[in-house]
Amino acid sequence: MSTPALEIDDLGFAYRSQPVLEDVSLTVDRGDTLAILGPNGGGKTTLLKVILGLLAPDRGRVRVFGEPPSRARGRVGYVPQHVSFDPEFPIRVLDVVLMGRLASRRPFHRFDAEDRALALASLARVEMAALAKRPIGTLSGGQIQRVLIARALALGPRLLLLDEPTASLDERVGRSVWHLLEELSSDMAIICVSHDIGAISRFVRNVACLNVRLFTHPSRQLTPEILEATYGCPVELLAHGHPHRVLAPHEGGEGA
């Protein structure tokens, strides 16, 4: 049996004694696609940072391909939620993607022909190779998101982490990003944090709900009971871009 892409056992993490993650256990097999949903402040981004080795847990065990996160960084690609570019800064699309090669190179490494070939191949994979020489500031939101995915792919990851990859995109463009991730899942494990519940139900294989504690579900089906356990109140699925709506009074007052 091959080593899972990710193994987490009894993970705990707190900011200034305030629990953010409690008793989190999770296994993600190679080739799996997992979506993590939950309310803002529920610990989703923190969990990704622990998997990346950017944060050390207070307790518990994390293994990425059988190793501590610090030793597996060359096999994990990451697409953060908030990335901003100065539209006037003269950096090309290809240069942005080349940054993805830095994790696998020694400090002060000069990019060589192999790096450039891999970066161009990553752009081609997300259908952006024709824009390699364009300034990044001239691209649309959907195009920039594909470039950021290409940057993560340039590393040659076996596990890809994405934090809200379609949060700032309209429904049509967001759907194209989900289709892209579905294609990429044939070559790597993917863990994606998202509020896009409708897309999750179509494009991923498994779902985990996180609100300090983790609720795992071995399918993509979401029920009112699952969502209520995660958000801590009755919820209703709405149109794209609206995570939930409160249906009845609940602790913390009324409102979404």
Layout of strands and helices, then pairs:
Layout: E1 6-15, E2 18-28, E3 33-37, H1 44-52, E4 59-64, E5 76-79, H2 93-98, H3 113-125, H4 141-153, E6 159-163, H5 171-184, E7 189-193, H6 197-203, E8 206-211, E9 213-217, H7 224-231
Helix pairs in contact: 3-4
How does this model look, in words?
With 256 residues, the chain is α/β, with parallel strands linked by helices. The protein contains seven helices and nine strands, in the order βββαββαααβαβαββα. The protein has a six-stranded mixed beta sheet with strand order 5-6-7-3-8-9, sandwiched between helices. A three-stranded antiparallel beta sheet has the order 2-1-4, covered by helices on one side. Strand 8 (206-211) and strand 9 form a beta hairpin. It is globular and about 45 Å long.
Considering the chains and any ligands shown, give keywords for the structure:
three-stranded antiparallel sheet, disordered C terminus, 256 residues, Rossmann fold, globular
Low-confidence stretches: 237-256
CATH topology of the domain at 6-84 and 157-231: Rossmann fold
**What is the number of strand segments?**
9
Radius of gyration: 19 Å
Specify the structural class: alpha/beta
If strands are numbered along the chain, what order do they take across the biggest sheet? Answer: 5-6-7-3-8-9
> Count of DSSP helices?
7
Fraction of residues in helices?
25-40%
Distance between the termini: 45 Å
Largest sheet: 6 strands, mixed
Based on CA inertia axes, which overall geometry fits? globular
CATH level 4 superfamily of the domain at 6-84 and 157-231: P-loop containing nucleotide triphosphate hydrolases
Query: SSE string, helix = H, strand = E?
Result: EEEHEEHHHEHEHEEH
